[in-house]
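User: New here, any thoughts?
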Amino acid sequence: MTVQTNLGGSFTLPNTSITLQRLGYGAMQLAGPGVWGPPRDADAAVAVLREAVALGVNHIDTSDIYGPHITNQIIRQALHPYPEDLVIVTKTGARRPADGSWQPAMSRQDLIDAVHDNLRNLGIDVIDVVNLRMMSEKPSEDSLAEPLTVLAELKQQGLIRHLGISNVTPKQLAEAQTITEIVCVQNEYNLAHRDDDAFIDQLAQQGIAYVPFFPLGGFMPLQSSKLEAAAISLNATSMQVALAWLLQRSPNILLIPGTSSVEHLRENLKAADLQLPPQMIADLNSIATTAAR
């Protein structure tokens, strides 16, 4: 398989030697239904990961709560020993009890255990990037100092190279930066959900990566007549246009669309080939205004 040379360009995390292709891969969908248990087709899950790397992806987003443990074990099975330039980003701050729900796990021991679970199931000695995921339904102003300090200590111990934060506000970023350097922020953002517009610009000025989760709308995929019209005019899919819009929104945006299908993976990555003209971008920008009414 020929490496896809265009993955939206690249971005170097601040004050690091880590350069990421802007189109990466989110591994959440590799687990079973509801991100719980094994996948229906384990061989297909392995194939998606191997194809992603073969096509040039060097940024995989995961968490040991996916499955739980299952997704990281599949990543290890598919890709270990890992390519030298592959960057695995994980997250802590949640746990999955037996009922499959998502619960906060912010105690010191929770966070230490989560980091060690990721290390063990990925088969590595140090994690490239760990995001502290705040578990409020929407970003709040709760202090993140206590849990982030625990992760900063693990960074000092050499178990983590770099830290990020997720589901946060600009105020929480400022607090986090008094504790440790932050290389990325992972928040919800897409064509219809644009609360973070000013935040993205602020992060770009600081050279910090912004990684939108639910870039395609998450469990409620984006639907819009304007999006569909743009896709038709470009001979593309609506999802490709939505991803291309994100790539053109700001150079510090890194994408991690997820899929359990090789065909869909290839489709997502081809979004980097699209160039949206100014009038189309203006039309797409109006989707968020309509959604807010």
Q: What stands out?
A: The chain is about 40% helix and 15% strand. The mean pLDDT is 95. The chain has one domain: 10-218+250-259. Residues 108-122 form the longest helix (15 residues).
